[in-house]
């Protein structure tokens, strides 16, 4: 993964190309627009930053949702998101090229709020412009309809990819998220870099990069093409897992101390404990 791949996944880089396939971007009202109570109630945004969403901060909102009605709602999510902190401080983490970091013009993206069912979201992995894997997005839960309809879901996403995405995105290796609504229509949600900075969900990055263990999961009699992608979902309630965002509810200093990721914080903590013992 190179730095240019990260830049090409910015919202402003891909949105003009795929505007008709995704959720509409909403421009916030300006001061010159009317400010009636009725209009304020109708304005609901899902906030996004041009390289990452705030999914790790939903827990702090009053409604446990990323729906924002006021500027204060947006600020609260921003202050509570480790994803945003990472994008501001380490935007090119895991990039392999040694070139100087390019300048990023950060932008706040407000998108029209839509009630999306978690069990209808899927993450798709593309390598060399070929769809190699599809994963259930919310893999912590078991959804019966996914297991029963996985062939149909896979076929719909494949058709969407070949018709609208393949050879049209700016890179040949990338990750994209989609939503399949109750009518079977597929919507584009977001793009992400093809690399460790992106959650591989029910795959591992070793599998995705090497191509091993990615043989299609369907038999020939099920009507899918031979080059169909590997499709993975949570197959039973026995395999349900805790939310991957639980650790983000802790202060980052606590997490760094427990994992040893920040040696300076550990040294400061040990000095503090030593001073406390000396005082006692």
From TrEMBL:
N-terminal signal peptide: none
Family: Belongs to the CDC123 family.
Lipid biosynthesis in keyword set: no
Swiss-Prot/TrEMBL keywords: Cell cycle, Cell division
InterPro entries: CDC123
Role played: ATP-dependent protein-folding chaperone for the eIF2 complex. Binds to the gamma subunit of the eIF2 complex which allows the subunit to assemble with the alpha and beta subunits.
Gene Ontology cellular component list: cytoplasm
UniProt key word Cytoplasm: no
Organism whose genome encodes this protein: Acinonyx jubatus
One example of a Gene Ontology biological process annotation: cell division
Protein name: Translation initiation factor eIF2 assembly protein
Oligomeric form and interacting partners: Interacts with the eIF2 complex gamma subunit EIF2S3 (via C-terminus); the interaction is direct. Interacts with the eIF2 complex alpha subunit EIF2S1. Interacts with the eIF2 complex beta subunit EIF2S2.
Taxonomic path: Eukaryota, Metazoa, Chordata, Craniata, Vertebrata
């Amino acid at each position: 993964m190179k730095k240019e791949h990260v830049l090409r996944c910015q919202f402003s880089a891909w949105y003009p190309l795929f505007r008709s396939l995704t959720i509409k971007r909403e421009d916030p009202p300006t001061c010159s627009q009317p400010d009636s109570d009725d209009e304020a109630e109708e304005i609901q945004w899902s906030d996004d930053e041009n390289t990452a969403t705030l999914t790790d901060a939903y827990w702090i909102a009053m409604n446990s949702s990323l729906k924002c009605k006021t500027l204060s709602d947006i600020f609260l999510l921003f202050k509570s998101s480790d994803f945003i902190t990472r994008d501001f401080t380490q935007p090119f983490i895991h990039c392999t090229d040694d070139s100087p970091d390019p300048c990023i013009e950060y932008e706040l993206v407000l998108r029209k709020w839509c009630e999306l069912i978690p069990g209808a979201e899927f993450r798709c992995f593309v390598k060399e412009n070929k769809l190699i894997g599809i994963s259930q997005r919310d893999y912590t839960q078991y959804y019966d309809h996914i297991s029963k309809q996985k062939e149909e879901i896979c076929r719909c996403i494949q058709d969407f990819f070949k018709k609208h995405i393949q050879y049209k995105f700016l890179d040949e290796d990338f990750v994209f998220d989609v939503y399949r609504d109750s009518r079977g229509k597929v919507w584009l949600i977001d793009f992400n870099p093809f690399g460790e900075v992106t959650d591989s969900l029910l795959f591992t990055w070793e599998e995705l990069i090497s191509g091993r263990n990615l043989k299609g999961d369907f038999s020939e009699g099920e009507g899918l093409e031979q080059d169909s992608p590997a499709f993975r979902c949570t197959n039973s309630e026995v395999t349900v897992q805790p939310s991957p965002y639980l650790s983000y509810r802790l202060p980052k200093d606590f997490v760094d101390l427990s994992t040893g990721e920040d040696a300076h914080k550990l040294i400061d903590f040990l000095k503090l404990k030593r001073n406390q013992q000396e005082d006692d």
